[in-house]
Automatic annotation (TrEMBL), chains A, B:
Belongs to the peptidase M32 family. Keywords: Carboxypeptidase, Hydrolase, Metal-binding, Metalloprotease, Protease, Zinc. Its EC number is 3.4.17.19. One of its GO terms (molecular function) is metallocarboxypeptidase activity. Zn(2+) binds at H260, H264, E290. This is Metal-dependent carboxypeptidase. It comes from the Bacteria. InterPro entries: Peptidase_M32_Taq. Its cofactor is Zn(2+). Binds 1 zinc ion per subunit. Broad specificity carboxypetidase that releases amino acids sequentially from the C-terminus, including neutral, aromatic, polar and basic residues. Signal peptide: none annotated. The active site is at E261.
Length: 491, 491
């Protein structure tokens, strides 16, 4: 049976990816600096091997023959996901893949010094090369998939999502967001927020983090918590490696970072055991992944009921202080302040940073915007959404993100799609199970049980659209996100 | 140039082995228990892949063509080592490899419960299957290599070593060892040794261990120290992962374990950077590897001058106690007591455990001893060397080691060859640089510099015989080991 041959082949690929995930985690958390060069080489060889595995010439025949295999519905979806992975790996001519990878490395490498130097002029020619090759790749993908150029890139991160849908969702969001931002700022202008008084010893932060992960149902039999410069959730679903970074001056950020990553981790740990070694058993999309972390961080973590449970824990680990009062924590964790930097943004202004990037990258790829005109468009949109000028400020303007330097166009929307999905799931869950006030106070396991049933166990067995519909009974919509933000920030 | 193609091919293999080494280390030190099944599968796939890499059908042609390449002497040795790795991987028919691996897994798995149950009768049929398939493999290797059956297995761990040489070395050793053991026991009978008084907190043991590793020149930029159930030295030479196990009741053993593993680690860290990715850049043999760990543990670590430096460190980390006196430490660390268990044996009785196993495994493989007669021979030899009877005691007799259960015949001699090499190196070094009294007290870096020049940098560029000769100016001999033991224990 050809389907069996395909399963075996993709399981082997999964095993290689497992080794890469663990060695990548080790590189970020455990490896002494002197091991880096050898590790990079070893991981490079593995990447080539994984690519070869997806380009095995037998695959084409197996896929054709598998169409005649008697498969149940899940196996058919499994076959479709294998085919998608194969298609993505074989669609572009090898020359173009190589050229794009080279231009991307060159641009990203230069960016590391050009960004701090605020050197747009030095960056532009390298970036133009990346844009040009990304357009070429997008064209090739577009032709093969029957999509627009930008949609063909979006498809890599958020299968099934189209810019037409995004234009609708973001258009709606963009309609009310600037007004909400202004309103909240006005409302918070005279609010008193006590800052948390440090220092907060690393080992105590870790103990607190582990306790909160325990609350949130993280399975320590299948995962662990460590430290890395850039927090992430890695490893494999049987062994999830979550990382954080401690700042002894600030416990608030590391703690909420752990809550966020625990959302990613529980999704991974909750993927169906039966399908874990195959593409269909992986997380549905970047946006759905982010919906789980934002569900944990924003819907649960910044909810007053959650912060009311957190308050005594903080006091227990670090001693009493007035700033640990539950209502102060709630004000602290819902503070809104327009700023230049996306990764530092709060829940309300974050979508503005994303919509701005979406607008630019879509037009760049579709050929409606040129790389040289990027700073001007950036400035316009920052003015429009957040009332900030980035004229001449490239460091904290259009040079702030790594994503575009290596040509990862199409990824940014995932962040705000995640927030939109999370709000829709949270609304549906509360309609079915009762309010977060009650659930967080009395029955967190019911929250996780619901997510497991509605999201985690489905892995990639459903499309995102079907996933959202069966979970919420509604088509995808930004309305729950609007209700959530308005209720929390201007209610 | 075919040699270049071979280099590239073997470098790729090395990268895969790198990933396996790190993931294997992770499995022993970091991995949560629930990750084990997936990890075992992933490492299994990697093993198959490494094997396939060595069975690539292009290799034969490349090796033939490379004979016409213009190669310098080092490249020629590199070629020879690649050819050796290839030969070892392709020599046996695939059916036999599979059957042996299966029988080995089955026997090893059963042994884990049969040993504690003292169940020789249950073990025997499984072990007979392993012996029979190992003989078959040995015959195939023997035919191809023009060696005796046992020598063809020995060749895997100790290239160039022959049972004829071993018979000579061990015959000599066996002549004076029983007498020495008796003499030392008599001498130590009325000696007072104060036991070290615990508990010794794990974090303090670790701090002390790190300090001692620092003394011994371990490069923390290219390695680290962690904890595992069974201490080992893993990772890759650019990133050596050393492990230990702490017992709060006993600091002496963990500490000397760290010294031992640091010897292995420095050999790895000292391998020549230029050759690290190729077979010729790997450690020469199991025996040479063990010679470095035993040089550190036995020649240096149990030397009175070393223990005199250790004494104040112990007091500093754990507080003063009479047992920390340098002369008490020296008595403690040179205590000789015949016992049943090889891994618990002291420096003097250890070779007896090895010679006994050598005698048995050689005859088993050559067909001069049958598996069913093993307990009787074991008992005879234990009586002869150590005056202990193991009649009916399989648990602490012939069932104590894991090595034979999966058919690793030919490995045991490495332990005592390591001790013999170490003594010969130590004698030569002291002739050239001065006594250990002075070197340990004033100039440890000279010791390591000498080892780096004479052993580490040569990797597998020289045969063991050439390595020993250029280092010591003498052919391989057990005489320095005899002088060392007699001087330390009956001097
Ligand atoms: Zn995230
Ligand atoms: Zn050793």
């Amino acid at each position: 049976m050809s389907y069996s041959a395909l399963e075996q082949h993709f399981e082997q690929l999964h095993h290689l990816q497992h080794l890469g995930a663990i060695c990548g985690w080790d590189q970020a958390t455990m490896m002494p600096a002197g091991g880096n060069e050898a590790r990079a080489e070893a991981l490079g060889t593995l990447a080539v091997l994984c690519h070869q595995q997806l380009q095995d010439p037998r695959l084409g025949d197996w896929f054709t023959a598998a169409e005649h295999d008697a498969l149940n519905a899940e196996q058919q979806q499994s076959l479709a996901e294998m085919r998608r992975a194969w298609r993505d790996a074989t669609l572009l001519p090898a020359d173009l893949v190589r050229a794009r990878s080279l231009a991307g490395s060159r641009c990203e490498h230069a960016w590391r010094s050009l960004r701090p130097a605020n050197d747009w002029a030095g960056f532009l020619p390298l970036f133009e090369e990346v844009v040009s090759l990304s357009r070429e790749a997008a064209s090739a993908r577009a032709d093969a998939l029957g999509l627009s150029r930008y949609d063909s890139l979006l498809e890599q991160y958020e299968p099934g999502m189209r810019s037409q849908t995004l234009d609708g969702l973001f258009g709606e969001l963009g309609g009310w967001l600037p007004g909400l931002i202004a309103e909240v700022q006005e409302k918070q202008r005279f609010e008193t927020v006590l800052p948390l008084q440090g220092p907060f010893a690393t080992d105590k932060q870790k103990a607190l983090g582990l306790e909160v992960m325990g609350w949130l149902g993280f399975d320590f039999h299948h995962g662990r918590l460590d430290v890395s410069a850039h927090p992430f959730c890695g490893g494999v679903s049987e062994d999830v490696r979550l990382t954080t970074r401690y700042d002894e001056a600030d416990v608030a950020q590391a703690l909420m970072g752990i809550v966020h990553e625990t959302g990613h981790a529980r999704y991974e740990q909750g993927l169906p055991a039966q399908w874990r070694r195959l593409p269909v058993g992986q997380a549905r999309s970047m946006g759905v992944h982010e919906s789980q972390s934002l569900f944990f961080e924003m819907q649960l973590g910044r909810h007053p009921a959650f912060l009311a449970r957190l308050a005594p824990l903080l006091a227990q680990h670090f001693g009493e202080q007035p700033a640990f009062a539950a209502d102060n924590l709630a004000r602290l964790y819902t503070r809104v302040k327009p700023g230049f930097i996306r990764v530092d943004a709060d829940e309300v202004t974050y979508p503005a940073h994303v919509m701005l990037r979406y607008d630019i990258e879509r037009d760049l790829i579709e050929g409606r915007l040129e790389a040289r005109d990027l700073p001007e468009r950036w400035d316009q949109l920052m003015q429009h959404y957040l009332g900030l000028s980035t004229k001449g400020n490239y460091t904290n303007g259009c040079l702030q993100d790594i994503h575009w330097t290596d040509g990862s166009f199409g990824y940014f929307p995932s962040y705000t799609l995640g927030a939109i999905y999370a709000a829709q799931l949270a609304e549906a869950m509360q309609q079915q199970l009762g309010t977060f006030e009650r659930l967080i106070g009395e029955d967190l396991p019911a929250v996780f049980g619901w997510l497991e049933q509605k999201v985690w166990r489905h892995a990639s067995l459903l499309s995102t659209e079907a996933l959202m519909t069966q979970a919420s009974g509604q088509a995808l919509s930004a309305a729950p996100f609007e209700r959530h933000l308005k209720q929390r920030y201007s209610g």
